[in-house]
Each structure stands twice: as C-alpha cells, then as structure tokens.
Amino acid sequence: MNLLEHLAAAESEAYLERAGRPIPARQAPLRPFLSGPRGPIRLIAEYKRRSPSHGPFPDQSLEAVLRRYEIAGAAAISVLVAAEGFAGSLADLQEAQALTSLPLLYKGFVSRLGQLDEAYAYGADAVLLIAAVLGPDLPLFVGQAEARGLKALVEVHSERELHEAQDAGARLIGVNNRDLASLACDVGVFLDLAPQVAPGVTLVAESGYRRMEDIRAAERAGAHAVLIGEALLDRDGMLLDAWARAQTHVG
After folding, report:
1. How many helices (H) and strands (E) does the chain have?
2. Is the sign of the CA dihedral 182, 183, 184, 190 positive or negative?
3. Least buried of 26, 138, 148, 251, by fewest C-beta within 10 Å?
4. Pairing, β 55-56 against β 50-51
5. How many other CB atoms sit within 10 Å of the CB of residue 84?
6. Which domains does the chain have, with CATH numbers?
7. 11-33 burial, b if ≥16 CB within 10 A, otherwise e?
8. H-helix or E-strand containing 147?
9. pLDDT per residue as tens digits for the range 22-76
10. pTM above 0.85, yes or no
C-alpha cells in the first residue's frame, strides 16, 4: 500500500466510524468558487496543521491565518480535513466557514458519497476529488458533488488521469505537481499536462510553488488559479507577501 492508498483508507475508516451520527445543518449559503470572468491567476490559499512531506507547521490560529490570506488577496481557502498525516478535521472547515466570507474547498481523500454530505453541511463550497483515489467511480462523484451544489475540483497527476477527469465531465481540474504515492514534487508536471486540457476547463496548478516566477510560468501555461499551502504557512511568509505586492501592482 503506497502513501496515497494509506491516506485514503484511513479517511474512509474515519468516515465509517462516524457514519450514522447526525450532521449539522449548513449555516451559510453556497459561495461561488472560482467563478466569474477569468483574469489574472487567482490564489487558493491552504490551511493545514501538518503534512507528510513537511511535518508540522508553526502553531498559528485559524483566524489569524485566514485574516492574512484575505489581506493578501486570496480568492478561496482550501481546508485540510484529513486527520491522518494532516491533523485536520471537519471542525476546522466549520470554523473557517464562520470566520471568512471567502469560498471554501473541502480537501481530503474522498471515497464515500457521505463525505460529500459532510462537505456541504460543514460549510464547503467545493470539494476535492482525486482521480487516483476514485478511479472508475469518478464520474459518479463529480455528478453527486454537483447535485449538492458543490464545485468538484478533480485532481490529476498524469496524462491518463487528466483524460479520465475530462471524460468524467470535470470543468474544474487541478494538476498536482506532487506524486501523492511517493511525495516527489516537480512543478514541470503542470507545464507538461496543461496543453492537453480542453478549452473551457478552469485549470488549477497545485503544489511546489515557492517563487512568483514559477507561478507566472504556470499562468502562462494556462493556469487560472494556483493552490498553495506549505510556502504560505511557513513562518517567514515571503511568498504570501510577494503575492500581496503583485495584486497591488495589478490593481
């Protein structure tokens, strides 16, 4: 069992342990996720407490992190809900929903349809669906996410997975530069796959971005948004400051 399979199995088991318990009623209307006219590349800023590739991040309150992301001009927030490897929870998603008006992405390892209900109930506006986890069930999960009003961000890492995502009807596709089976990361993965994405798809570049130069290269290759966590959560905050300055210049 590789790392991705382990993480997906752990989250599936955690879901089954709480299945059948009442879930809360959603407290806010759905917010548009990466909608509207396309312009300069947008930032999906991620909150997580730790990751398998990095280890723990500096201890920071969710409120403080979200405030920094808002000030820097983030377009959306990704919240890691997986406990295994990330120390996340649905409570983090619910708290974020109460703390920010920005749209939220439920980021975990979805393999059960009930997780889509939880994503909606706890305040998500979009949900991450990993092609390598869902395999032939991907079209079902894309359709069921949309039936709940959630945007489906379908994550791929290979040419085969990209074709599977497009065949599943995904209109929002994230290319993850990190191989979740081995944790190897190469920002060239996005540059290789982006030209194969069908017109009209909203394209997100994910993982490995620490320099504005690399973000601009992804934008030139077709990225409409970039999802960044590790480089924003490190205490120096240099990339977040650089992003904020770039938005001021654009404005």
Report:
1. 11, 10
2. positive
3. 251
4. antiparallel
5. 17
6. 3-15+43-250 (3.20.20.70)
7. bbebbeeeeeeeeeeeeeebbeb
8. helix 138-147
9. 999 998 899 999 987 778 999 999 999 999 888 998 888 999 999 999 999 999 9
10. yes
